[in-house]
Amino acid sequence: MSVSETAPQAATDAQGLLSRSPHPPAPLLDRPTRLVLLLLGAVAVAVPLLNLAVPASSALHVSTYTVGLLGKYAAYALLALAVDLVWGYCGILTLGHAAFFALGGYAIGMYLMREIGARGVYGNPILPDFMVFLNWKALPWYWHGFEHFWLAAAMVMLAPAALALVFGWLAFRSRVTGVYLSIITQALTYALMLAFFRNETGFGGNNGFTDFKDILGFDLQAAATRAALFAVTVIALALGYLACRFVVTSRTGRVLQAVRDAESRARFIGYRVESYKLWVFVFSAVLAGIAGALYVPQIGIINPSEFSPINSIEIVIWVAVGGRGTLYGALAGALLVNYAKTYLTQALPEVWLYALGALFVLSTLFLPCGLAGLVPAKRAGLAPRRWLRGTR
Amino acid sequence: MAAGHPVSVTPARLRTFAARLSGRSRSARPPRVGPLLTGDPLSSGPDTSHGVILYLEEITVSFDGFKALDGLTLYIETGELRCIIGPNGAGKTTMMDVITGKTRPDQGSAWFGQTIDLLAHTEPEIAQAGIGRKFQKPTVFERHSVFQNLELAMAGVRSVWRGLCARLSPAEHERIEEVLEIIGLAGRREEPAGALSHGQKQWLEIGMLLMQSPQLLLVDEPVAGMTPQETERTAELLTALAGRHSIVVVEHDMDFVRSIARRVTVLHEGRVLADGPIGQVQADPKVIEVYLGE
């Protein structure tokens, strides 16, 4: 007996809930995508203008501090997109993505350290300060070439990609899935944190890298440089969004979602599920690496705490709050949660961690599709209560 | 690539061959047959020049000492519609698992046509070689549309990179429309598969099998939970497909089996108990004792 005969209510509910997933196949530039790109384009132009061209006395002036803060949010948003791509579209709950972010940050940090040259405290033209302090005589082999921006830029992508490739190959080939995969991704980032804490590893140990002077010859303290970094970050975010959108609307994207929903079925119709997972994991790690590389020059510091397991969990919370599997949800979640974090850690510092936990519990219970779940449900004219129940 | 001159490979010879290898060396293949077969046997499909598409010989599978299959030997002819029946635990699903590469047997050999050793390949490779499987519980991609389900199942693009730029050609589009007509879901192509009724999901799954254009279809309990009308429609569908495809149906519903089967195989305790036309099998006292008599 068909479902619609026995339980008409259940059938309508199922249809209502299912209509929230992108359906029928949306084109590359659907409405949310156009809106996101338009907004990002406007912000990339307006914020630097309001910072540089509007006098500080004006009410419209955006301070350099705010530019840096917004730039940080934009880098986080790119990181959230990377996590949404693997988690929201392929069902891989990664709790170690901050590792790729930090690797990208360290790669650009190495370049920034070499850029300091003889302007460091010890005035050594070759060795960064921490190496002089540790009494090292020569650069370790893996530091060679990082005086070139192009090499650092390549390593920003290659280092996370290589780690994701090796880790993913081992994990997916052994068909590690679900919570086990999440746990080993946590172990991965934790192990890296411990390694980077050691002075012998050659990445500045506990203190990491800081005191950067300039990037490509531009003073990192100058308002114009910071505004340019902001604009570059927002443009990278827009391009990253477009790239993710291209992936998820392609047939490969539909296979990824099929793997998420019914992995063994995908395998039985002839898809090498492991290859798909590995591919999307590596692609996402590259995005995370780029996000990290954009983050570090704006923040001015990178240290091993970026690898800490809690950071990776926070990214997942951004995506969960915003709504996974939509891309724009991840973006909105990253911005909102981080804005809340900035505000709360200043206003009520002791409350923040509880607030974060509560946010995650509440959004899981009441907004299983995140904030993004509100949008199409409303547009489809469904009862407002509908999104409270959710599919997941 | 083909080793030596053409040699005719009979099941008996295959068995000796398999016995000589004593089931251990799974990658060894017998000499290829036919001068035209020069490519990779996986992509060129099975060689059914002897009229047999599937050889299962002396297959034994045990789980913690329990023998799910116990020296099972079974041949499926090209274009045949074969029903496999048997009480619970007879080994029907395990047999399907062995054929599709999900379970590796302890002993025995399984060949798809003359050239493809099923025990040497993974699940996706076997699927690409031309064996499609429909599970007992309908598993379609619930959040994809009916159309997308068929698109994903379509034989062809399987690589990540090619999938990024893959577009449906007019011929592929037509093929999907054709299958939508066959399974009676043309009017619901844009709906999410999760919104379909149970019977419609089963048909969609059969449609997905067809999109893979497999030579051999394995269908596990296709009419479980269907209305009588849906069951009748499924019987029509399967009998219409036989001939162009070889079909193996595992089913409990005896009325359904009677309505489609030309030849029935009864499994019991991991072995073939009886084999033949439905009337003859139903009259067999051994069968009545273990299965129909219950």
Question: What does this 3D model show about the protein?
Answer:
The complex is a heterodimer of chains A (392) and B (294). Chain A has one domain (25-308). Chain A has 17 helices and four strands. Chain A has helices spanning 3-6, 8-18, 31-52, 64-88, 97-116, 129-133, 149-173, 178-197, 223-249, 251-261, 263-268, 273-299, 309-322, 328-347, 352-366, 374-379, 386-389; strands spanning 209-210, 214-215, 218-219, 301-302. In chain A, the strands form two sheets. Chain A has a two-stranded antiparallel sheet. Chain A has a two-stranded antiparallel ribbon with strand order 2-3. In chain A, α5 (97-116) runs antiparallel to α7. Chain A is globular and about 60 Å long. Chain A starts with a helix and ends with a helix. The model of chain A is unreliable at 1-24 and 378-392 (pLDDT under 50). Chain B has helices at 11-21, 41-44, 92-99, 123-129, 146-153, 160-165, 170-182, 198-211, 228-241, 254-260, 278-283, 285-292; strands spanning 52-63, 66-77, 81-85, 107-112, 116-117, 131-134, 216-220, 246-250, 263-268, 271-276. Chain B has one domain: Rossmann fold. Chain B has a six-stranded mixed β-sheet with strand order 6-7-8-3-9-10, sandwiched between helices. Chain B has a four-stranded antiparallel β-sheet with strand order 2-1-4-5, sandwiched between helices. Chain B has 294 residues and is of the alpha/beta class. Chain A binds chain B through residues 1-5, 11, 14-15, 18-19, 21, 23-25, 246-247, 250-252, 254-255, 257-258, 261-262, 264-273, 275-276, 279, and chain B through 100, 123-124, 127-128, 132-133, 135, 139-145, 147-148, 151-153, 155, 157-161, 163-166, 190-192, 194-195, 197-200, 208, 212, 227, 230.
Key features of this structure:
heterodimer; A: 392 residues; mainly alpha; two-stranded antiparallel ribbon; two-stranded antiparallel sheet; 4 strands; globular; disordered C terminus; B: 294 residues; alpha/beta; Rossmann fold; six-stranded mixed β-sheet; four-stranded antiparallel β-sheet; 12 helices; 36% helix; disordered N terminus
